[in-house]
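Before relying on records like the one below, remember that each one covers exactly one chain. Contacts with other chains, cofactors or solvent are not represented anywhere in the record.
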Amino acid sequence: MRITVKIAAGICGMNSEIELNGSMEGDYRILLKSDCQLVQSLAPYLEQIDQLMAAVGRFSKNPVFQAAEACRLHAACPVPTGIIKAYEAFCELALPADAVIAMKKEE
């Protein structure tokens, strides 16, 4: 199975792509590409985490959020959530579907 998530982070203009390949029961690989160096620094952490814990772990215990904290990602960065959504679909705990944050400022 392959799950791919593309994230346009917003005003920073940085784009990221997460790809999970393999199977939940066996070996799998996670590939992380990003224009952002801080997001790129997540890669070694992601190679070592438990995929199921990444998919269902609570905020304070989730290894993706813990890695994001260790790598000093901005709290509003959508990439960690996108990674968790990828794991969730990969573990077949949710169907793969787009998630959107849309912003509009009116005066």
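The chain has one domain: 2-90.
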